[in-house]
Amino acid sequence: MANSTSGDSVTDRLVRVLSTFTPTRTVQTAAEIGRRADLPSSTAHRLVGELVDSGLLERDDDRRIRIGVKLWELATRSSHALRLRQAAMPSMERVQARIREHTQLAILEQDEALFLERLSGPESGSNVTRIAGRLPLHAASSGLVLLAFGDRELRERILAGPLVRTAAETLTDPAALRRKLAEVAALGYAVAPGYIEAVSTGVAVPVRDETGTVVAALSVVLRRDAVIEPALVELHRAAREIGAALGYRR
Ligand code: PHB
């Protein structure tokens, strides 16, 4: 697309504007968007106005801006994520009903774990994960599964750091993380006690597509001191079913 005088393309600017929205920052003024996207105020107001006209952004009664339902509609059509989520839903519902803790589905996206779905109940404990939110691969149980069963280049890129600390027990030492990933690959599941937050333990298993490739991680977030075996049994069963729904035959 055509370049502006400052050298960044229109697409760059649009992506910067849309990326100022986060799971916890869902409503902003046009001026805040401009500041966060590092755009001159007039450019920000013009771009935001055009995006509102197109329906990709929406303006509320206080003239504050949020992501438009049209953007959700387009993004939700993403065939890959939608197919995976639909294949996973029935099994995820059973895991949540039986274990009664947060049950979530994550995929690898630009070197992070992106959560496509999260089911929670009234009794579920603490959880920092959000639908359409991300966590660092080395810190979350799902991320450890995606790393352990992912490409070697991905693993080496993440091991090269930086390994950000999210809690006291996050593995930030590359050698310790390498050992953990070998263990996850050998066991076929990941347990992450206190890696994301001190009060919980993440437990995750791989989900395979029709070719046997690991395409997602299915996880539960347990209380830190919970027994993990019942959750593991449910997760493995669910992952097998989701794999079968995706056409995976063993
Ligand atoms: C995990 O997957 O390890 C995990 C995710 C969210 C939490 C805690 C643990 O809040």
Description:
- This protein is of the alpha+beta class and 250 residues long.
- It folds into 2 domains: 10-75, Winged helix-like DNA-binding domain superfamily/Winged helix DNA-binding domain (Arc Repressor Mutant, subunit A); 80-246, Beta-Lactamase.
- It has helices at residues 10-19, 30-36, 41-54, 69-76, 79-99, 141-148, 152-159, 174-187, 229-245; strands spanning 27-28, 57-59, 65-67, 102-109, 112-119, 134-136, 190-193, 200-208, 214-223.
- The chain has a 6-stranded antiparallel beta sheet with strand order 6-5-4-9-8-7, sandwiched between helices. It has a 3-stranded antiparallel beta sheet with strand order 1-3-2.
- Helix 2 (30-36) crosses helix 3, helix 5 runs antiparallel to helix 9 and helix 6 (141-148) packs across helix 8.
- The longest helix has 21 residues, at 79-99.
- The structure holds P-hydroxybenzoic acid.
- The site of P-hydroxybenzoic acid has 16 residues, from helix 6, strand 8 and strand 9.
State the CATH architecture of the largest domain: 2-Layer Sandwich
Q: What is the CATH C level class of the largest domain, in words? A: Alpha Beta
- CATH level 4 superfamily of the largest domain: GAF domain
Strand content: 15-25%
Number of strands: 9
- The geometry reads as globular
Tally of domains: 2
In whole angstroms, how far apart are the ends?
46 Å
Largest sheet: 6 strands, antiparallel
Q: So how many helices?
A: 9
CATH topology of the largest domain: Beta-Lactamase
| Order of SSEs | HEHHEEHHEEEHHHEEEH
How would you state the average pLDDT, rounded? 94
Q: Class by helix and strand content?
A: alpha+beta
Instruction: Report strand order across the widest sheet.
Output: 6-5-4-9-8-7
Poorly predicted segments: none
Query: Which distinct ligands sit in these coordinates?
Result: P-hydroxybenzoic acid
- Secondary structure: helix percent: 40-55%
Rg measurement, Å? 20 Å
Pfam families: HTH_IclR, IclR_C
Keywords: DNA-binding, Transcription, Transcription regulation
GO molecular function: DNA binding; DNA-binding transcription factor activity
Protein name: Helix-turn-helix domain-containing protein
